[in-house]
Amino acid sequence: MINKENLGSNLPTILSGFFLFSCFYLNNLSISIFFILLYTLIVFKDDIIKKFKINWLTILPILFFLFTCLSYFYSDNTVEFLSIIERRLLWIISPFFLPIFIKKINFSLLKQIFYWIIFSSFVYNFISSYFIDMYDGLYSYLGSAYTHPLHPTYVSVYVNIALIMLFVELISGKKKNLFFLPIFILFIIIASSKLAIILLIFNILLCSIFLISKSWISIKNILVTIVVFLATIYLVFQNPTVSSKFTEARNSIEIPINESVFEDPSYHPSSSNQRLVAWEASIDIIKQNYLIGVGSGDYLDCMVAQYKKNGNTYLQKKRLDSHQQFLQTYAELGIIPLLILLSIFLTLVVVSAKNKSLLLFMFASNFFIFGITESFLERQAGLIFFLFFLYLLTNKKILNGN
Fold first, then answer.
1. CA 47, 50, 56, 60 torsion-angle sign
2. Which residue has the higher pLDDT, 19 or 354?
3. pTM, 2 dp
4. Do 338 and 326 meet the contact criterion of CB atoms below 8 Å apart?
5. Domain of residue 172, residue span
6. 253, part of any domain
7. Residue 366 has pLDDT above 80, yes or no
């Protein structure tokens, strides 16, 4: 509960949490960073100096940032390079500040804030979408998947992380937040993001396997698991927007798209078509620069040049990035930073195995899958969330509490 006693001591957590989890679409979440850094600097400056711990999860992000800096020497576009450095400052700041900040916060309170902000976002967007189109509010909501400030894919991934927390609570026998479970599942389905739907099904299956492996087999548990899984599948494919998106994605894979269709001004390529073309362009760049990449400053210019070379003026004008975190890192910085990024995920899996943390393992799995279809670390909305939860879920207090 939030009461007078813990409200004051956790005010920075509440403010940071609000901006961190509500400003999903914004590229610059400077307000959230400001609260975290200012509070940490004032209150924990001695801890930062004395208690900074050297481990893989502090070293690897710093190394990733340093390789970005090194790419300055072979990047021609200095303006773009400085923009990327600004965006990636958290890679070098977070290892010093976030572990200290997280040690002092109330995890239960933060979790409640997280749940309630997602719930209120659902209510807000549903109501606002209705008033945008008074005559066909629900259809408009299902079709457009949120109002402009929110990115459906990013929001849905965050909600999946909240669902994972709820699953772990339920597995632990805690049922006080059960109210949020159907709301969050409905939230993801209405968002109509293909990735989020895949993650939702993956998470339900993984939790079911975990329950069985723990020998918690009972008729009740089996029936509940089957009902939840089948109900989710039914609701997913009853949503016409979701069904059409998956059909579109399957067609994009089965029928290779002709580049010439992008020249037609009336043609609006699907997100799946655009991704496939962007991945192909990224691979072409990697083949020519497989060792050190093209440099952070020149990466987007090289993508545009590759689109032009392939005769794709639509994506050339759009200046679309790889929309795949691992391809983008490889094309931009080369093989070593790619291995650093993969090592971060490997470290999370190892730590989760050592501490038997289902929560951490599922977090790492969800974001790894996220990286296959989105360059999520190139947006502050993705980077802040990932680093915050990386240090939160690897905190000893949280791991021991699992």
1. positive
2. 354
3. 0.82
4. yes
5. 4-246+335-401
6. no
7. yes
